[in-house]
Design brief:
This protein is mainly beta. It folds into 3 domains: 144 residues, no CATH class; 152 residues, Methylamine Dehydrogenase, Chain H (7 Propeller); 79 residues, Beta Barrel (Thrombin, subunit H), CATH 2.40.10.480. Helices cover 5% and strands 37% of the residues. It has 2 helices and 33 strands. The strands form 8 sheets. Strands 26-27-28-29-33 form a 5-stranded antiparallel sheet, with no helix packed on it. Strands 1-32-31-30 form a 4-stranded antiparallel sheet, with no helix packed on it. Strands 2-3-4-5 form a 4-stranded antiparallel sheet, with no helix packed on it. A hairpin with a 4-residue loop joins strand 2 and strand 3. The longest helix has 20 residues. The protein is globular and about 55 Å long.
């Protein structure tokens, strides 16, 4: 190589090497911002005991679906509805589990049904929203959505709001199926939520791309629009004067219902992956890092966290002062006590390979869970008090006099503190404690709306 050419290339290569070395390497999405931070060993060593331990007893089961369930169940005190991906809509009595009626949609389904007063609503993969009489399954009306459904329909103030992947929100008259409005969006919307700003009737619509709107349910006229600057990872939770939602930067945002202005933002350990729950002064955030974070609702301060054994990706159900969750891939149902979320009881499906479950549903004073990878199944569970087991003075070994083989309990149930099949003995596994989280790192310089 000529010397003059080498003299020109070498300095350029050196500059390029310096620039490349200064560039940050791609960072792996860590499980939690609290990973590796110190935890008080005194607190972590103490299991949190429930005030009222429970056990789950199967009340009834149903195996009448021919394909996996298309989405979550819909319920009221009078009926329970579910749809499989092959397009079979089934309505049951939630108390007895007996089938009341079923219809063949003659089209596939990708979302679950909706109980809307005297009607059952079901969207199809062909872009239709169909309404059936809740009493007997009689067809009432059908509306053209103009796109694939993005979630179950929502009934608000006499209007049915259906989200689509177009992306769009369609407003439909609940009486006759007449389309009364369409709202085009920038990204796929989540199911709308009811709102009452200053005693008006409205709906909050959040889209995955980060846009939040307050709209009129019938006309879809927009009252205000905000962009939070991050993807939205959980459906909005709407209270009397606030909107709470999870954002892609692992934060929870609190917005004013009247204007959409941000009140506070708080980082948690991972992305919020299910609908937030509000109870009393606390918010409960189910996150993908297997933890449920407790926050003070009015200022976002972290109050603690409860650790579970599998990731949380589905909505929870509330009933009898407890929170019921179905951890992702666990094939189980866990009952947690408010407000500290002590584990009160656990139910194992004991179905090999059937890890897919729906979100739990509370109806008729019991909790119902759907599951199945090949075909859909339902099980309804009664909640029964389970007094804590008394401590034995000594445990004879297998070769000592008095040693007995433990008797099996109710199939599919595990009492509080008991181990799942194939795990270590219960006395070696403390119940998941609530661990006060270490302070979260400050938000990045570009983050707006920190604590105020």
């Amino acid at each position: 190589m000529p010397k003059s050419l080498r003299d020109r290339i070498l300095p350029a290569a050196a500059v390029l090497a310096l620039v490349m070395g200064a560039m940050p390497a791609a960072a792996r999405d860590s499980k939690s911002v609290f990973t590796g931070l110190p935890i008080d060993p005194e607190i972590a060593a103490k299991p949190l005991k429930p005030d009222k331990p429970i056990r789950f007893e199967p009340a009834w089961s149903f195996a009448g679906f021919t394909a996996p369930l298309a989405g979550d169940l819909a319920a009221s005190d009078a009926l329970l509805a579910g749809t499989d991906v092959a397009g079979h809509l089934v309505v049951l009595d939630p108390k007895s589990g007996t089938e009341r009626w079923h219809v063949d949609l003659e089209d596939a389904a990708s979302t679950g049904p909706t109980v809307a007063g005297e009607a059952i609503l079901q969207a199809t993969s062909g872009g239709k929203l169909r309404a059936f009489a809740a009493s007997d399954g009689r067809a009432l009306w059908s509306a053209d959505l103009g796109g694939l459904p993005a979630g179950p329909a929502v009934l608000l103030w006499g209007s049915v709001l259906q989200t689509t992947r177009t992306p769009e929100v369609v407003s439909i008259d609940a009486r006759d199926g007449r389309v009364t409005g369409r709202l085009a969006l920038e990204s796929i919307p989540m199911p709308p939520e009811e709102a009452r700003p200053k005693h008006a009737l409205a709906a909050v619509i959040a889209a995955e791309g980060g846009q939040v709107r307050l709209v009129d349910p019938a006309t879809l006229k927009v009252h205000w629009r905000r962009d939070i600057g991050q993807a939205i990872t959980s459906p909005p939770l709407v209270t009397r004067d606030r909107i709470y939602l999870g954002a892609g930067d692992r934060s929870i945002r609190s917005l004013k219902l009247s204007s959409g202005r941000q009140k506070w933002s708080q980082r948690v350990g991972s992305r919020v992956s299910a609908r937030l729950v509000a109870r009393g002064e606390f918010l409960y955030a189910l996150c993908y890092d297997t933890d449920i974070y407790l926050l003070v609702a009015h200022n976002g301060h972290l109050a603690g966290r409860a650790h579970l054994d599998h990731r949380l990706a589905q909505d929870a159900a509330e009933g009898e002062g407890r929170l019921f969750v179905a951890p992702y891939t666990a094939a189980a149902l866990v009952g947690l006590e408010f407000p500290r979320l002590a584990v009160a009881g656990r139910y194992e499906l004991n179905e090999h390979g059937e890890w897919f479950t729906t979100a739990p549903t509370w109806a008729a004073d019991r909790v119902t869970l759907g599951w199945g990878r090949e075909t859909g199944h339902l099980v309804a569970l009664n909640i029964v008090d389970a007094p804590p087991a008394e401590k034995e003075p000594s445990k004879p070994g297998p070769d000592k006099p008095g040693a007995t083989t433990p008797s099996s309990g109710t199939p599919g149930t595990i009492a509080p503190g008991a181990a799942a099949p194939g795990t270590a003995p219960p006395d070696t596994i403390p119940e998941p404690p609530i661990v006060p989280p270490s302070p979260a790192p400050p938000p990045p310089p570009t983050e707006s709306g920190s604590h105020r």
